[in-house]
Amino acid sequence: MSKKQAILIGLGSVYKRFIDDRYNRLPGISLKKSQFETFADKLSSCGWKIDMLREENATRDDIITMLNKYLSQLTKGDECLFYFTGHGDGFKVSTHTEINEFFITYHQTLNSKLISNEIVTSYLLSDHDYTNLVYQYLNKGIRFISILDCCKAAGMINQLDRENHLLFAASEKYSDAYVLGKLSHFTTAINYAAEYCNSNNDFEKYIIKELEELRPGQIPVINIPEHLGEETQFLKMLT
Q1: Structure pTM?
Q2: How many domains are there within the chain?
Q3: Does residue 112 contact residue 21 with C-beta atoms inside 8 Å?
Q4: Residues 6 or more apart whose Cβ sits within 8 Å of residue 114
Q5: 3-class DSSP state for residue 91?
């Protein structure tokens, strides 16, 4: 029987430690503890094994280590789900026109004024880091589900249309994602959609519809390979 492994990453209150830092001043981001745990419970009830990193434990190196751990344990036909909730951002490398996106993972000296290519490479989880790891899973025949609840989410992985990769990104590559109080609009939309949809295709449509009602103008990027569209969505309750 195939394995279903979920890796959940949550950062929120730890951002408040960054003095005079713009990530600290962005409104409403918190760990969303109840929402985070509710999502974890929902996955568990659907047969997913859960592992998670939160706040100070969600460093670039620790996330990469966890992804590599399950890359070595899972085999062809297994599934891995990666969920990130927190800040995402991007910056232009001075010698290129390319925007480098990155997850704001924890580091004790992180300050947005100091972000550079060297800082991203050393302390933050970059789009290149994440893309490389996802492709290693896919190349082993492991189905991979990315749920990226952050700003610039669609930019966190390159070549979105890889076979056996399902992408649920809260925002377009150059756009922001939003919260209300302690609740992420995108994760709220996913949780609602899970209650009413059976197939992946219906799941996608309902998420888009629900998010438009919750936060008009926040446009998610969802990519589901055609051959997986009619399969049962990954948050369908076990019976």
Answers
A1: 0.90
A2: 1
A3: yes
A4: none
A5: strand
Calpha distance 17→42 (Å, rounded): 30
Q: How far apart are CA 16 and CA 4, in angstroms?
A: 34
Tens-level pLDDT at each residue, the chain (239 residues): 889 999 999 988 888 766 445 555 544 455 555 788 888 999 999 999 999 999 899 999 999 999 999 999 999 999 999 999 998 988 765 555 566 888 989 887 666 555 566 666 677 898 999 999 999 999 999 999 999 999 999 999 987 667 899 999 999 998 999 988 778 999 999 988 988 888 999 999 999 999 999 999 999 999 999 998 998 888 875 43
- The β-bridge relationship of strands 179-180 and 183-184 is antiparallel
Residue 232's Cβ-side half-sphere holds a number of Cα atoms within 13 Å equal to 7
- Helix or strand run (H / E) with residue 48: none
Q: What is the helix (H) or strand (E) element at residue 69, kind and residue range?
A: helix 60-73
237 in a structural domain: no
Rounded Cα gap, residues 46 and 237, in angstroms: 5
CATH number, position 146: 3.40.50.1460
Could you list the residue range(s) of the whole structural domain that residue 44 is in? 4-225
Task: Give residues with Cβ within 8 angstroms of 108, minimum separation 6.
Answer: none
Q: Which amino acid is at 72?
A: S
- On whether residue 232 sits in a domain, the answer given is no
Question: Are β-strands 125-126 and 99-103 bridged in parallel, bridged antiparallel, or unpaired?
Answer: antiparallel
Question: What angle (nearest 5°) sits at the alpha carbon of residue 86, between those of residues 84 and 89?
Answer: 100
The partner residues of 90 in beta bridges, in order of sequence, read: 101
